[in-house]
Structure formats: C-alpha cells, structure tokens
Amino acid sequence: RKRVLSGAQPTGILHLGNYYGAIRNYVDLQENRDAFYTIVDLHAITVSHDPKELRESTRTTAALYLASGVDPKQATIFVQSQVKAHTELSWLLQCATPIGWLERMIQFKEKSRKLRNMEGDDEEEVKRRSQESVSTGLFTYPVLMAADILLYRADLVPVGEDQKQHIELTRDIAVRINDKYGGKKWKKRGGRGGRVLSVPEPYIPPVGARIMSLQDGTSKMSKSAENDASRINLLDTPKQIETKFKRAKTDAFEGLEFGNPERPEATNLLSIYQLATGYNKESIMRECGSMRWGEFKPKLAEAVIASLGPLQSRYNELVDDPAYLDAILKEGAEKASGVAEQTVKDVKDAMGFLI
Ligand code: AQP
Fold first, then answer.
1. Residues of the chain with CATH 1.10.240.10
2. Which of 57, 162, 207, 267 to probe ligand 1 with, by most ligand atoms within 8 A of CB?
3. Which of 9, 90, 97, 202: CA 20 to 30 A from 175?
4. Contact at 8 Å (CB) between 312 and 235?
5. Highest taxon of the source (predicted)?
6. Cβ(93)–Cβ(51) under 8 Å?
7. Does the annotation mark 220 as catalytic?
C-alpha cells in the first residue's frame, strides 16, 4: 500500500484554508492508503510561542483532525514531538543540506521579514534585525519537515500550494542522501533497491490549494495573521461566520466571476462557495453570476455554516472525552515510532554510524 504523510502546526485553530487545502484530503486519502497524520508541534516553536497555548492547540488540532473525519482505525494520528526520530533524522539531514537551498525558501523569507517588522532590503539593517528576532529553527524548519515526511517513506504528501516548495526541497534532500549513501554500498548492507530514502510527491488539490485572506485576496488565509476577520476558523460560530463574510473585502465590478486576475476576492469567495457546496463552476455561475455582493455573501455564509455544522458537533463530543483523544495519540505515537525508528536506523547505517 502507498504511504501518505501530512501534518498541520498547532499554532491556533485550523481555518478553512487548512481544511480545504489539506485536511479534507487527509480523509479522502486514508481510505486506500497507509496514512500517517501528525500534529507538528516542533514546528510551532520556530516562532515565539506560549507554552499553555501550545498545549491547548495541540489537543485542539488533534480533535479537529478527528472531527474532520480522520479515522484512527484507518490512519495513524500522532504528535510529532512524541516520536523522537523526527529531531534525530532532522540533524542527519541538516548536515547533508546546503545553506543555499534553505536561503531560497519563500516561507522563510516571508516569515522572517514579518518578524523583522521592516520594509525594504537594506542589507545591514536586515542582518542586524534578523540576528535578534529570527530563530535558527525558523531557518532549518524545512529540513525538519523533510524528516517528518522521509521517516515514513511517504509516497504522497497532501498539502496546500504554499508547501509545494518545501516538498520539492524534501525530494532534493532524499535524492542527495540516496546519491551520497545509497547505491551498491547500501544494497550490500541489505538496503532495498539501493535507495536509502523514498522520494515523495506532493498531493495538491485542484480547488482549495490556496484559500486567500478575507481581507486581501492576494495573501493567503493564515493562522498567524493578526486580524481574525481575515479567516474563518473551523470553530467559529454561525454569527461569526456571517459577520466575517459580511465584512470581507470585495470589489466594485458588476456581477460575480471566477478567474479574473483583477478580482482575486471574487475568485476566492466563489471558490469557497464551490468547496462548501460541492457544486461545479458552471452551475455556480448560472446561480450567482449576476448577483450583487449583498446577495451572495449571506448565501456563502449559509453554505459554509452548513458544511462546518457536522464537524463542529463531532468536535464538541470529542472535547468532552479527553481520555479518548489521549489514547488515540498514545497509540499513534507508538505505531509511528516503530516505523520512524527503522528509517533512522537505516539512514545512520548508510551514513556510517555504528548501530
Ligand atoms: N490558505 C491556505 N489555503 C490552502 N491550504 C493552506 N494551508 C495553509 N494555509 C492554507 C495548508 O494547511 C496545512 C497545514 O498548514 P500549517 O498549519 O502547517 O501551516 P501554514 O501553512 O503556515 O498555515 P497557516 O495557517 O498560515 O499557519 P501559520 O500562520 O501559523 O504559518 C498545510 O498543508 C498547508 O499547505
């Protein structure tokens, strides 16, 4: 069976972007594949964090996986930090990853720019501010992510568009390890097919791979954006959802349409409607093409509220039973450790460590 691995950071409540871009596909992919879904808490500390919030978010994220339909009977659900192999493999991979590869990562550039809290590219100032406010972990984050994926020899990684570059890096790292330490030498030591690590593919959905902020159709919906009105959190109340859509940025064009580059907000809101209802673009255009925003927005809110309803009820049942969640995470960590430790052992052996 093909292997699937993916994860989300417990940096707040998952939002519609996380759901449509990734979590919904976790559910589809668990059916016929050997799936591992993790809550990547070690990634959550690459920027400043509050320990109490991290603890809470970790449990909330796990409960939201389950509420979204991730099934512990089909998939292994675990917390990253409870499987020691992640940090161990990360170090081994870091030593095989050139700095230049990491310097090209767009997410690092964007997040560190935000942390430096400055406009412009004055090199000296960038350097001074980075030295104080950007952690080394934020820089090496994509290598930890590569370890997350490679540990499980994943074939497929369901993610949103923003993670595509990190998956490409993961592939490059795997190929580099295979080139350096695989081949005949490794085969002689019992390695399968001469490959120390499997090279994964991203699984990016055709619709929903990049849900945009409700306040700016050119930047992605994100947990860390300061303005809560920029996103629909999966646990928002119907009233909050209505208000957020009501206040969502729109434009002054007549009618509604998908795909006009001058109307990123229209494409975004229509795409959310498409995802929430399951209708195709043609029928949405027939239904809403000539609507005004004031007519469309309540309809959109209603569709999203209806689509999140069952998820929210399941979530409420789960939070009443913390022992159930703990048991699933414990079992998940044990199963994941078994698989992950074998991979670390293989990589260490191939690299020349005594095992
Ligand atoms: N806006 C989005 N549209 C589609 N997919 C998205 N994902 C994130 N934002 C969108 C996908 O959701 C999964 C989990 O994301 P994450 O928690 O690992 O971190 P992120 O990509 O950094 O998401 P956020 O919400 O923007 O978090 P912060 O603000 O904390 O960095 C991933 O598969 C991601 O692609």
1. 228-316
2. 162
3. 9
4. yes
5. Eukaryota
6. no
7. yes
Residue 18 burial by Cβ neighbours in a 10 Å radius (0-12, 13-18, 19+): buried
Fold of the CATH domain 228-316: Tyrosyl-Transfer RNA Synthetase (1.10.240)
Looking at domain 3-209+322-351, its CATH class is: alpha beta
- State whether the beta carbon of 160 lies less than 6 angstroms from ligand 1: yes
Q: What is the pLDDT along the chain (355 residues), one digit of tens a residue?
A: 999 999 999 999 999 999 999 999 999 999 999 999 999 999 999 998 999 999 999 999 999 999 999 999 999 999 999 999 999 999 999 999 999 999 999 999 988 888 776 566 677 766 766 667 789 999 999 999 999 999 999 999 999 999 999 999 999 999 999 999 998 888 888 887 789 999 999 999 999 999 999 999 999 999 989 999 999 999 999 999 999 999 999 999 999 999 999 999 999 999 999 999 999 999 999 999 999 999 999 999 999 999 999 999 999 999 989 999 999 999 999 999 999 999 999 999 999 999 8
Chain region(s) in the chain for CATH 3.40.50.620: 3-209+322-351
> Distance (Å, rounded) from C-alpha 26 to C-alpha 6?
8
Nearest CA to ligand 1 atom 10: 17
Helix (H, G, I), strand (E, B) or coil at 187: helix
What's the complex ipTM? 0.95
Kindly state if the Cβ of 209 falls inside 6 Å of ligand 1: yes
Tell me if 23 CB under 6 Å of ligand 1.
no
CA distances from 5 to 41, 90, 140 (A): 15, 16, 20
Strands 201-203 and 156-158: parallel
